[in-house]
Specification:
elongated; six-stranded mixed sheet; eight-stranded mixed sheet
């Protein structure tokens, strides 16, 4: 990987860069810039942007509104909003160094464009001078990981099936010198992954279900072991409990958990964190055919618990049950799972704030601290024990559709997963959306990386090199 991202320019080469001045709400501006700001109604509100031109019409300065306090994530919209050219962040004050680095990362995240299927007009690139002391390699790795997750989510299901997820996993493993094992199709029954097989067996043979497992540094037993688990439902029709058209429209994104687990796993390996790593992805298509699993079926699981299927559209927790059980067999020090699991999470917190579930207070604090520091938000939700009874079934150990009286669908889904989570170490579940439902500069409609940067920052702090 090159030292600098293609959209970054070394500080030594930035003499002619146009400064981007951060302006607080109500801040008085002098001279021509002040007059131009007043003429254009620029008041320093958060996210306001104004290009100040010189006598020759060329940009001499950019004003970026900070509101009451500058949020570096505001810089995420710069690439889409500024005319092509070279710019530099003009930040002042004690926190300028850290803010400049965070804003640079935000700028690069906002430059993401998914153009695999659509030719876009050529435009001069917006480039930024790298601030002094920036760890350009690390920033580039993080940006690339987020781009990988977003590209996987954005890619239609026809081109992002279980085999394609396996191919990406193999490329990641090979580049890191890691081992990879794949259990596919009816071999899932032989190797005791019955729930994964049940959910994915209705798909076409070339889209057969599979359990993908990457292992890295597993022979270095003195190191703690981290397990990353991802839900990889490449398309969710809802199964025989068929989704309506509107609910099915964006179900290509239902493999977002697998994309996050793979992207985070690649980051951990590229950074050479002092851990052993296992990345486990269950990749399936929840299709409809004569062999589809049915409401009322009783499924076995790898853990030995039987599950009554009340709704075939609650399939993600079924495949994660086997995947989490497999993770537990490694006796991990820490397990993180990512899944686009419930619509109830969106009802509770909306599309931009994924819920975090863990019963480990130390881990919760580490994750929330990291989320705040890197501005990759999460909100802790309760594993409320009073709702566990909603998972009880009459003729099986538990049910996949919690009783309606509990209502809290994201909470009961997390409680279901908790029954299969590893018994060693700490565990956390992120019920991510992995999607921007509205387009705005720096946040195009489509795939989004959520909780990925926060989890990576937490891992670096928890396991310092």
């Amino acid at each position: 990987m090159s030292a600098l991202h293609p959209l970054l320019v070394a500080a030594a080469d930035g003499a002619d860069a146009v400064p981007i001045r951060i302006v607080s709400a109500g801040q008085t501006l002098d001279g021509a810039a002040g007059r131009w700001a007043a003429l254009n109604g620029f008041e320093g509100k958060a996210g306001q942007l104004l290009v100040v031109a010189g006598a020759d019409g060329a940009a001499v300065e950019v004003l970026l509104g900070a509101g009451r306090a500058f949020d570096p994530m505001t810089a995420r919209g710069l690439s889409a909003r500024l005319p092509g050219g070279l710019y530099r962040l003009a930040l002042e004050g004690e926190a300028a160094h850290q803010a400049a680095h965070q804003a640079t990362l935000a700028f690069l995240l906002g430059a993401y464009v998914f153009d695999r299927y659509k030719a876009r007009p050529e435009r001069a690139p917006v480039r930024l001078v790298a601030p002094e002391g920036l760890d350009a390699v690390e920033v580039s790795r993080i940006v690339a990981a987020c781009a990988l997750a977003r590209e996987m989510v954005d890619t239609p299901a026809a081109d992002m099936g279980p085999l394609q997820i396996e191919t990406i996993a193999r490329e990641i493993a090979e580049s890191a010198g890691a081992n990879i094992a794949v259990t596919e199709g009816d071999a899932l029954l032989d190797d005791n992954y019955p729930a994964i097989h049940a959910v994915g067996r209705a798909a076409a043979p070339n889209r057969a279900p599979r359990l993908i497992e990457i292992g890295w540094k597993l022979d270095q037993t003195q190191l703690p072991l981290v397990a990353l688990v991802g839900k990889g439902v490449v398309f969710d029709t809802g199964g025989l409990d068929l989704k309506p058209a509107a609910g099915m429209r964006n179900m290509k994104k239902d493999m977002g958990g697998s994309a996050h687990a793979l992207a985070l796993g690649r980051l951990v390996m590229q950074a050479d964190l002092p851990v052993r790593l296992v990345v486990i992805v269950a990749a399936v298509e929840n299709a409809v055919s004569g062999d589809a699993f049915r409401p009322g079926d009783i499924l076995n699981s790898r853990k030995g618990l039987t599950i009554e299927v009340g709704n075939t559209d609650a399939e993600g927790r079924l495949i994660l049950a086997d995947a989490l059980t497999r993770a537990g067999e490694h006796e991990p020090d820490l397990t993180l799972d990512f899944a686009t699991l419930t619509g109830a999470a969106r009802i509770a917190l909306g599309p931009e704030l994924p819920p975090l579930y863990t019963d480990d207070e130390t881990l919760a604090g580490q994750l929330l601290t990291a989320a705040a520091e890197v501005r990759d938000p999460m909100w802790r939700m309760p594993l409320w024990p009073g709702y566990r009874a909603a998972l009880d079934a009459e003729i099986a150990d538990l049910r996949n559709d919690p009783a309606g009286w509990a209502q809290a669908g994201s909470v009961t889904a997390a409680l279901f997963l908790q029954k299969f989570a590893p018994e060693t170490g700490a565990w956390a579940h992120m019920d991510i959306f992995a999607w921007n439902p509205r387009a705005r500069p720096g946040w195009p409609e489509g795939g989004e990386a959520q909780a990925l940067r926060a989890c990576y920052a937490m891992l670096k702090a928890r396991y310092p090199g």
